[in-house]
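Example 3.2
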Amino acid sequence: MKAIELKSITKRFGRTIANDSIDFELYRGEIHAVLGENGAGKSTLMSILSGLYQPDSGKILVDSQEVRFRSPKDAIKMGIGMVYQHFMLIQSHTILNNIILGTKIPFFLNRNRLKKPIFELFQRLKSQIDLNARVSYLSIGEQQKVEIVKALYHGASILILDEPTSVLTPQETSDLFDIMRSMKNEGYSIIFISHKLNEVLSIADRVTILRKGKLVTTIENRDVKAEQLASMMIGEEFNFSDEAISDRTYRTNVVLKMDHVTSSRVNDVSLELHSGEIIGVAGAAGNGQLELAEVISGLRKLHSGSIFIDGRDITGKSIRKIIEMGVAYIPEDRIGVGSVQNLDISDNILLKSYDKFSFFDTSSIRSYSGNLANKYSVIYSDLKEPVKHLSGGNLQKLIVARELREIPKLLIAACPTRGLDVSAAEYVRSMIVNCKNNGSAILLISEDLDELLAISDRIAVMYNGKLTMMPARDLHEIGMAMGGT
């Protein structure tokens, strides 16, 4: 039985056609993956289905009944709920308050009566949880379960999961997949959006692929390989390259030395990183990885300890001085830290090299910024376009282009491939390995363990502010360390 039918859905933003007459079907009791490069139209299509956008033309049918959504409230009334990649939870509130938010409740609130169905939903997800606990105290995996329960509590029988494994440990990902399979067996329908092709192949019944706003195909997940999916996504033959695999060799000179560094969420970290070496840092979100990167790059002050670049103490140095010493930084937050949203593409590319150009030499500025943007396949309409109009993936590619415009002495890369499609991610990884091969020392912070294992020389895990070097490259052991065990 068809739970959802989208017929000839078209959505335009100005002159850009985000969705071009797309057809999509979702069956009851099905896990259906949606794949596509950045800008392929996945997010727009799911935003239409969840009521955030309205289509310019086309039809939406739920259980064979045509519907019109004017808001997400209309969608949830029809049983469609979306769990976003960045959770929509109020951190200072309890689990119970987050789940019942927006529900019509009696003036005299009987909290025990409300708790019973919510508790039963958590039991169905095989999760024992204190409904009075504040969300801020929960792990990322637990917060995700709260989001799922919230959608189910509000009546969702169709779930849209947007990049749900991007911030999970391997164990949490396995738990999530168990939950998805259990829900499927109970008759729920799940749309799974992901860039991780191996996960798609392991969990999905069918796969729909979009490219440049158009439907490419919908296929059964039978005897399909990741390379085939990637090729259909980009429109040409694609093979995962072995060139990005590190040879695990590096030079002896120490580029970065951290000596008992302590700051907010960084707890007594000591580390030596060599020229031509990549140290990969794994960890569930919120365990100090972001703060570690900010301490080294000068964005966050030390409470104690020292940091050295090529033997020179940079403690207390200005950010400009640290940049001049050859430190490049790809930040985790591409909007708040990595870019100035109201400035145009050229200005954002020039943020760290503006002193090399005359303000009046517009021809050289346009040539430099245009060449760099094109080299990294940034899709844009005009160099004077504000970067806030770029997709997340294209903004990320712009930041990577700016930071790798020259081979840095030290590269701090925090989630550099987050939000990138498979071909762009492979390209960024190859550029990072190229930096390594040219002598850069690289601290790679990533939520993608496959990425870390592929290109890192050594692996470290950050948990509760402490950095632990892993003696072996064992996925299970790394996952356990990420959970603090």
